[in-house]
Amino acid sequence: MNQLICLNEIKNLKRERLLWLVLAVTVCFSVLALYNGARWAEVQSQVVAAAQQEQQQAISSARQGLAKRQALTKPVNWWDDVYDLRGQAFYLMVNYAVKPPLPSAAMAVGQSDVQPYFFRMLVSEKQAFINHYDFAHPLGLLLGKFDLAFFIIYILPVLLISMSYNALAGEKQTGQLRLLMLQGLSPMRLIFNQLCIRTSVVSLPLLLVCITGFFILSDNIGLLSVSVFTVLVLAYSLFWLALCAFVISYGKTPAYNAAVLIVTWLSLIIILPAVLNTLILTSDPAPSRIEYVDTLRDKSDEVDKSSSKALAQFFQDHPELAKPVDDAKPVDYATKKIAKITAIEAAMQPYDDAFQSVLAAQQDRAELLKMISPASLLQGALFDLSGNGLKRHQEFIDQVLAHHHALRAFYQQRIAEANSRDDFTPCAGCNARITLPDLSQVPEFSYREAPLDVSWGSIMLLLLFSFVLLFSARQRLTLMNSGQMLGEPA
Questions:
Q1: How far apart are the first and last CA of the chain?
Q2: Sign of the dihedral defined by the CA atoms of residues 310, 316, 317, 320, in that order
């Protein structure tokens, strides 16, 4: 019987022009969305590769030019000398921290078009580079990118509604529903088969395009990522199928069903996430970024005015770098600069902690509130699966800060040793000795990828919402089967 119902539904759909329009929209838009996501991931990969190549080229060039620098007799400024620890630390170092895109990055652009994914490292206060962003047109950032996540979250439900809102209506209008019920066919069975066929018309071409595109555009994508993506799309489609069944179970006209479903789509996809976002930002407002910049400027001025105090605190924290008591030489410029950098970071730490605590509170509240929004559930799951979510970005920032600390420790130790050997001023009018002959000694950043974050909780919640709606629809359609709702208008 199920096979007969499905074949009959397919024959009916073939007569509808809407079927071919929906198919065309699904295929064209999914291809465009997949291309946009893959193109952005390719741009990121090219930038990351260029940064790594530039870093290796700098090491190779320095190795090849070492003999020429050793034979150099003309005066050279230390800030222009790639073989000087001070010049490398503060001005010339080519050292990048990069976050490569995942093979599944085409699934969702997420916040990767806003958040930085590479930093050029120098020995400076972390506030000088950690808030660095690429220049981009603000309108482009506001509109975002048309990616698969956008298509699935916003457009897929509309396509499903357009195919499903009038299910069961034809049978009621022609009187076939009463005859089918007299033969033992329940309305729930009929509508479930109809909606499954109509949902498949949209979801299966979408999945076919996406899965094929993933394996063509990404050589290293894993089966787990593709499988989880497929489950997410099917779970989201099942939710909208269940919602359509629930609305249709009231036995109203197709026009009424369409109006209710569109209003529900608008509420769940547009209004509810906007309300939740406003609630999160209102409950945990972030400190003013302008005030933060002003505070950073003030703290920098205070450290400049009390440089001796900052230097004393630096040597107290790093006694191994302090000069012997009987050494009358003045403290070198590089050590003073590192001491100032350390003092500025220490002075700004409470303000950095305030921003981080607000960010953590907002994220915790978002994780809690997204459970009432199917769109937010799917969005968070796709962002995490693509590697463009907030969690992976925060892990990257933590690793960047650790690398920044390692670079400063590397340079401050060697600068102090070089100064104690008089390498920077071997004689009056002489060039400084070569203090960094091999740039490969400088610590290099290596991003440590965390295991794939699969949002099983989001999948389970989507399935739970779907089963609740299907159960409610089944209860109402059971009443129809018993003849209590047959008198309602078709």
A1: 24
A2: positive
Integer Cα distance of 326 and 168 in angstroms = 96
Region of residue 444 (phi > 0: left; psi between -120 and 50: alpha; otherwise: beta): beta
pLDDT of residue 207: 95
Scanning 65-153, the segments in alpha helix (DSSP H) are 66-70, 85-87, 138-143, 148-150
* Surface-to-core class of residue 420, CB atoms within 10 Å of its CB (0-12 exposed, 13-18 middle, 19+ buried): middle
- Name beta bridge partners: 97: 119
Instruction: Report the distance separating Cα 386 and Cα 49, nearest Å.
Output: 19
Q: What is the DSSP track for 342-376?
A: HHHHHHHHHHHHHHHHHHHHHHHHHHHHGGG-HHH
What CA–CA distance (Å, rounded) separates 458 from 376? 9
Contact in structure between 107 and 382 (CB atoms under 8 Å): yes
Determine how many CB atoms are found less than 10 A away from the CB of residue 191.
Answer: 25
Which has the closest alpha carbon to 423: 320, 329, 314? 329
pLDDT means per 10 residues, the chain with 490 residues, are 60 71 92 94 94 95 91 87 92 94 92 88 88 63 80 95 80 60 64 84 93 90 93 96 91 88 95 91 86 89 83 76 60 85 90 90 89 92 92 93 94 88 80 90 93 88 94 82 49
Distance CA 368, CA 377 (A): 10
In the chain, the largest separation of any two C-alpha atoms, in whole Å, equals 109
Q: What number of other Cβ atoms are within 10 A of residue 421's Cβ? A: 10
SS3 96: strand
State both tokens at 237. 């489609």
Task: Please state, in angstroms and rounded to a whole number, the distance separating the CA atoms of residues 364 and 299.
Answer: 31
Predicted TM-score (pTM) of this structure: 0.87
Q: How far is CA 142 from CA 113, 138, 139, 172, 359, in A?
A: 11, 6, 5, 46, 21
Q: Which of 29, 173, 41, 149 is nearest to 103 (CA)?
A: 41
Query: Would you say 37 and 108 are in contact if contact means Cβ atoms under 8 Å apart?
Result: yes
pLDDT at position 393 is 92
Q: Percent helix, strand, coil in the chain (nearest 5)?
A: 70, 0, 25
**132-154: b or e for each residue (b if 16 or more CB lie within 10 Å)?**
eeeeeeeeeeeeebbbbbbbbbe
Nearest alpha carbon to residue 318 among 297, 346, 352:
346
Write down the pLDDT at residue 446. Answer: 93
The pLDDT, as a whole number, for residue 486 is 42
Q: How far apart are CA 197 and CA 163, in angstroms?
A: 10
Query: What is the spatial distance between Cα 79 and Cα 439, in angstroms, rounded to a whole number?
Result: 16
* CA quadruple 480, 485, 487, 490: dihedral sign: negative
